[in-house]
Amino acid sequence: MDYWVHSSFCVSSIAALLLLLLLVCDYQVVVRARGDESSSSCDFFKGRWVLDQSYPLYDPSSCPFIEREFSCQKNGRPDQIHTKYRWQPLDCDLARFDALDFFERFRGKNIIFVGDSLSRNQWQSLTCLLHSAVPTATNNVTRVDTVSIFEFTDYGIRVMLDSNMYLVDIVKEKIGRVLKLDSIVGGNLWKDIDVLIFNTWHWWNRRGPSQPWDYVEVGGQTSKDIDRMLAFQKALETWAGWVDSNIDPAKSRVFFQGISPSHYNGSEWHEPSAKSCVGQKEPLLGPYPGASPPALGVLKNVLSTIQKPVTLLDITNLSLLRKDGHPSIYGLGGRTGMDCTHWCLCGVPDTWNEILYNFFL
Ligand SMILES: *[C@@H]1O[C@H](CO)[C@@H](O)[C@H](O)[C@H]1NC(C)=O
Ligand SMILES: *[C@@H]1O[C@H](CO)[C@@H](O)[C@H](O)[C@H]1NC(C)=O
Ligand SMILES: *[C@@H]1O[C@H](CO)[C@@H](O)[C@H](O)[C@H]1NC(C)=O
Description:
The protein is of the alpha/beta class and 361 residues long. Strand 4 and strand 5 form a beta hairpin. It has one domain. Helices cover 28% and strands 17% of the residues. The protein is globular, with a radius of gyration of 21 Å. The chain contains eight helices and 13 strands. One 2-acetamido-2-deoxy-beta-D-glucopyranose binds next to strand 4.
């Protein structure tokens, strides 16, 4: 479904080859249409986790740049079964992530993850998936403002991360830091990028010292606080407007990462004695007994109003089943911490990226 690759190839071709190329492109359009049919009949996000000894897709010790936060094995997590699960959709098979194919497909392209630490989790997974397959491929990691740039120099592929917790702007003013739900100047960084994967949610309920703003502004009104779910919705609407006015679908493909779930309350998966995810070694078979996060409904509503094509990476349900996938006491805080929000690497975000990859086949 990489039509954009073929179409730019056609445009830049010389006149003598035009007829031949038209035929070739026609053929590719037909193939693409057929591909769309088959993918629309298969929902990648409905399925189950199956044990597969050929997983994980990489050895985390061969990926030197996984941050300590996600390095569960290095931090002493003893059980490894959680790395051996593959996501199996109900109605089709996912193609296994193929890093060499990925390098060829995305040669010269820019990919950006925009969002909070869950975006960082997925970004690191993708760089590991690529690096571990071709460890000799030279790479270069730099940082410009909020953007970390991981470049595979041999292929001219840049896999970037814009650390941006709310998507909309936080502006320092005289009264303090103002979260501006109608303003998305930060979006100037995202123009003309080939693949964009957005995400925001986990910071919307932050209060107290870790809340990185003092006032919230919407519709010309500034206040100390507003309903957080409404604030989330307003920000998504601003982002949706940005997509509609700035994305050229012939050049860019837009995804939303979806809502990544946490596991702090065992009652949700019928294990009331579990006060967190610690000691969880296996996924749930599904369907998940607990409720869907309300933020997902808000997100889906806003996505349905966007004119430009945006694909939801609807990873909530499949990740809800992975109570075993979090760092727990093998994360940033170590034995005194309890991280049931982020995901171990290797781990669940590798599956998010495997599904992302399948959208391009
Ligand atoms: C996720 O689960 C909810 C509630 O069980 C269900 O309504 C929804 O269709 C599921 N979505 C997917 C993509 O499986
Ligand atoms: C790494 O990237 C930066 C920014 O693009 C560039 O200035 C630098 O020359 C690159 N270094 C290497 C070794 O390619
Ligand atoms: C845990 O989940 C159950 C069931 O959804 C709910 O009744 C309970 O209040 C939750 N406990 C906490 C501490 O959030």
